Amino acid sequence: MSSRLLTAGRARRARSAEAQAVRGFARDGLPMVFQPVFELESGDRVAVEALARFPGRPSLPPSVWFDRAEQLRLLVELELACVRSALDCLGELPRDVRLSINVSPRTAVTEELAELVAPVGDRIIIELTEHAPVDDYAPLKKSIERLRQCGVRIAVDDVGAGFASLRHVLRLAPDIVKLDLSLTRELETDSRSRALASALVTFCKRIGATVVAEGIESHAVLTLLRGLGVRQGQGYFLGCPGPLAGTG
Questions:
Q1: What percent of the chain has pLDDT over 70?
Q2: pLDDT in tens, 19-69
Q3: Is 176 exposed, middle or buried (0-12, 13-18, 19+ CB in 10 A)?
Q4: What is the pLDDT of residues 87-137, one digit of tens each?
Q5: Predicted pLDDT of residue 27
Q6: CB-based contacts of 103: which residues, under 8 Å, 6+ apart?
Q7: pLDDT value at residue 7
Q8: Which of 16, 121, 126, 193 would give a disulfide with 150, using CB separation of 3.0 to 4.6 Å?
Q9: What CA dihedral angle connects 34, 94, 222 and 156, to 10 degrees?
Q10: Which domains does the chain have, with CATH numbers?
Q11: 81-97 pLDDT per residue, tens
Q12: Using alpha carbons only, what angle is made at residue 241 by residues 62 and 98, rounded to the nearest 5 degrees?
């Protein structure tokens, strides 16, 4: 048997194993870690972001697993499984600390998501994470309004990383705008990044949205963000992802 056929066979087996793993995760749920979000002036913890962790083999980053799920048309099922896993931990949080959960617009419009979060909506933030453009905003806006009526706050993730997230902000008028970590990390060295962050802060004040900076990894960046008027933030300098008991 030629080396090319052997390589192709290994690739097929690897894809089959990944597909089986994704279906298992979508069925059974996933372990979650939580990264705290703080008020930058007071240091008070105001939220925790739930982040899925994928055990076993093959060992791949979460973003790759979600891409695999999308290719298998299992993204919504996998994201809903993550929502359930995150909600299982809600009882461990103080009532004044919200639980932030990431979903794509496709999951945000589902009846299943609304049913899961409605009973505890006043404790939940839904982060819209997809970078691809949304072709029709009408169903998404309708679903978001229903979630808001339950007390859910809506965040747009990764703002500053591309046009799609900015379009989400313009069309959806979110309660929270999260600055992408690539923008945060360049604040010290790039004047254009500082100008963009400053413009986004000004814009968010005008539309009544709270700015949360992701990827804060040094005291210098924290000081810059405070100076720009960013109210909230998260990052390894403030707190690493981990069990809920270690996020306060």
A1: 91
A2: 888 888 888 889 999 999 999 999 999 999 999 998 876 577 888 889 888
A3: buried
A4: 999 999 999 999 999 999 999 999 999 999 999 999 999 999 876 678 899
A5: 86
A6: 79, 83, 113, 126, 127, 128, 129
A7: 56
A8: 121
A9: 60
A10: 3-246 (3.20.20.450)
A11: 999 999 999 999 999 99
A12: 100
Q: What is the DSSP letter of 155?
A: E
**Which amino acid type is present at position 159?**
V
Q: Please name the amino acid found at residue 72.
A: L
Residue 156 belongs to what H/E stretch? strand 153-159
Distance CA 163, CA 131 (A): 8
Spatial distance between the Cα atoms of 28 and 56, rounded to a whole number of angstroms: 14
Q: Which long-range contacts (CB under 8 A, 24 or more apart) does 182-189 make?
A: 182/215, 184/213, 184/214, 184/215, 184/216, 184/221, 184/225, 184/235, 185/215, 185/217, 185/221, 187/221, 187/224, 187/225, 188/218, 188/220, 188/221, 188/224
Give every CB contact of residue 216 below 8 A, 6+ residues apart in sequence: 184, 222, 225, 233, 234, 235, 236, 237, 238
User: Tokens at residue 17, please?
Assistant: 């194993």
